[in-house]
Design a protein that fits this description.
By secondary structure, the protein is of the alpha/beta class. The protein has two domains: 17-333, ABC transporter transmembrane region fold; 355-430 and 510-601, P-loop containing nucleotide triphosphate hydrolases (Rossmann fold). It contains 18 helices and ten strands. The strands form two sheets. Strands 6-7-8-3-9-10 form a six-stranded mixed beta sheet, with helices on both faces. Strands 2-1-4-5 form a four-stranded antiparallel beta sheet, with helices on one face. α3 runs parallel beside α9 (292-333) and α5 (131-173) packs antiparallel against α9.
Length: 605
């Protein structure tokens, strides 16, 4: 017996920055040799950088030691200066080249795993999702990984290394006050940056929410382009979109104002600190405790210290923004898949399949049950039809057979094995479906038919099109097989889309076939033509027909009448008519409607 369907989970609390970094770290550590080599190059580049002012000090002191020294160029020192400059640049470029594989590899792997995970999530999740916002979250998240890694390795770590080396040199070679002022600058600058940036992060998160909402509305409106046109609601849609963008604009303005405050405060702290350090250095020269070379060295150190400190603010802001952008993407990866394979799941491998629904209860929500004690069998190679009014629970049966949901009670079995004990991949490989609403990929006709079995040969694909009676239509098109079908297949008619769906199901060649209201959206003439094709591919397959039009199921080996989620009648067509029950009344009503329709279509003399 299957477990009860889970409730829809509550919204997750925001992830912390540390959680996001912990999630990212394993993707980086796959390239640990490159990471360690990049860090080594970084350290060597910074050692060369902080050694440059010391060489300048020796050059100046050498030239100012005596008048005679002006006539001698300190060639070794100048060569050392040039060598350190080259080493600083060379090691920096080598670090970038080594780490490129790490960053791009991590981005690719995270994006792939997110994409795969989204396909593992249940149908329940995807029915509740907002596609535009979700795709925006993934796009921002992958960009955020690149930004985070770039600023972490190329800015934050170099900044702290440079500050550490300079502080050690100032303490070792000069007055302790130099180190004290330096550390005071760093603490004041970092504290101010963190406080203001945390405030900006809240604004940034709000901007992301509003951006996702605006994108969701835009994508939803464009996907329903025809509906918008039918009702003349272009201005209404524009107003809804502008409302979202207006809220985003206000948040963006607030974000830019906070950025202005941050930059102004950082500049003020740096100006005060640099002035104090220059004052101490100048006083040291006047008092005779320091040479001109020392003053030049301290000034060079200050320039080197100012640049990293200035970048510290930029880097911290960018890292916080990147972490905010990554937050939602990693939250998607934590969504519960709901339907998952059991550790001991079996691989289904058969060409003859008997399907059993055994006393199945099911509800999409705990408080709203859809199916009540549904119990029937489809013997291998036979056809069973389920009919009933809209909302009776017919299409729910196909979703349970595909195991998009777990039953609340009872089980669905194939060859006496509960489908929850089978791997989802092998289960779904054995089932083909021709749905009521065929949705095609925005690609060519060839791609959409080949999608039934991506490894199929062209000859097999052509044969599937011939079996679906769509080959002549394809070959009559100017672009033939390369004809694009448009978004969701909207460039094709309903009958053409259904034939593509039939062709790709034929190509898949499954032992179990589901025809879910496969012709209900078509006119009578097209329906009759396609019905014959469906009957041909259903021959010798275990077939479940879900239908509203009773004329499509008269040849089924058994017809099940479903009302309000319960089986109320079952039998063959003639038996059910003879009982003069619900099925017979439905048949009489539909026959009457067809006669009226035929009378309207018959031309008057």
């Amino acid at each position: 017996m299957s477990s009860p369907a889970p409730d829809i989970p509550a919204a997750r609390p925001p992830r912390s920055d540390w959680q996001t970094l912990q999630t990212l770290f394993p993707y980086l550590w796959r390239y640990k040799a490159r990471v360690l080599l990049a860090i080594a190059c970084l350290v060597l580049a910074k050692v060369a950088t902080v050694a440059i002012p010391l060489i300048l000090k020796e050059v100046v002191d050498h030239l100012t030691a005596s008048p005679q020294s002006l006539l001698v160029v300190p060639a070794a020192l100048i060569l050392a200066y040039g060598g350190l400059r080259l080493a600083s640049t060379a090691f920096g470029e080598l670090r970038d080249a080594v780490f490129a594989k790490v960053a791009q590899g991590a981005i690719r792997q995270v994006a792939l795993e997110t994409f795969n995970h989204l396909h593992q999530l249940s149908l329940r999740y995807h029915l509740n999702r907002q596609t535009g916002g979700m795709t925006r979250d993934i796009s921002r998240g992958t960009r955020g990984i690149g930004s985070l890694l770039s600023f972490m390795l190329f800015n934050i770590l170099p900044i702290f290394l440079e500050i550490l080396f300079i502080t050690i040199i100032l303490v070792t070679l000069y007055d302790w006050r130099f180190a004290a002022v330096t550390l005071a600058i760093i603490v004041a600058y970092a504290s101010f940056t963190i406080v203001v940036t945390e405030w900006r992060t809240k604004t940034r998160r709000a901007m992301n929410d509003l951006d996702s909402r605006a994108n969701t509305r835009a994508v939803d409106s464009l996907l329903n382009y025809e509906t918008v046109k039918y009702f003349g609601n272009e201005k209404f849609e524009a107003a809804r979109y502008d409302e979202s963008m207006g809220e985003w604009e206000r948040a963006a303005i607030q974000n830019e104002q906070a950025l202005g405050l941050l930059n102004s405060g950082q500049s003020a702290i740096i100006a005060v600190g640099v002035t104090a350090l220059v004052w101490l250095a100048a006083d040291g020269v006047v008092q005779g405790r320091m040479t001109l070379g020392d003053l030049v060295a301290v000034n060079a150190f200050l320039i080197q210290l100012y640049s990293p400190l200035n970048m510290l603010g930029v880097a911290y802001r960018e890292i916080k923004q990147a972490l905010t952008d990554m937050e939602r993407m990693f939250s998607l990866m934590e969504e519960d898949a709901e339907i998952s394979d059991r550790p001991e799941a079996q691989v289904l491998d058969t060409r003859t399949a008997t399907v059993d629904f055994e006393h199945v209860d099911f509800g999409y929500e705990p408080a709203r049950q859809i199916l009540f004690d549904v119990n029937f069998r489809i013997p291998a190679g036979r056809t069973v039809a389920v009919v009933g009014s809209s909302g009776a629970g017919k299409s729910t049966l196909s979703r349970l057979l595909f195991r998009f949901y777990e039953t609340t009670r009872g089980s669905v079995r194939i060859n006496d094995t509960d489908i929850s004990d089978l791997t989802q991949e092998s289960l779904r490989a054995h089932i083909g479906i021709v749905p009521q609403d065929t949705v095609l990929f925005n690609d060519s006709i060839y791609y959409n038919i080949a999608y039934g079995r991506p490894g199929a040969t062209r000859a097999e694909i052509v044969e599937a099109a011939r079996a679906a009676h769509i080959l002549a239509f394809i070959e009559s098109l100017p672009k033939g097989w390369d004809t694009p079908v448009g978004e969701r297949g909207l460039k094709l008619s309903g009958g053409e889309k259904q034939r593509v769906a039939i062709a790709r199901t034929v190509l898949k060649n499954p032992p179990i076939l589901i025809l879910d209201e496969a012709t209900s959206a078509l006119d009578s003439r097209t329906e009759k033509a396609i019905q014959a094709e469906l009957a041909a591919i259903a021959a010798d397959r275990t077939t479940l027909i879900i239908a509203h039009r009773l004329s499509t199921v008269v040849d089924a080996h058994e017809i099940i009448v479903l009302e309000h989620g319960r089986i109320v009648e079952r039998g063959q067509h003639r038996e059910l008519l003879a009982r003069d029950g619900i099925y017979a009344r439905m048949w009489a009503l539909q026959q009457s409607e067809q006669e009226k329709e035929a009378a309207r279509d018959t031309p008057r003399p």
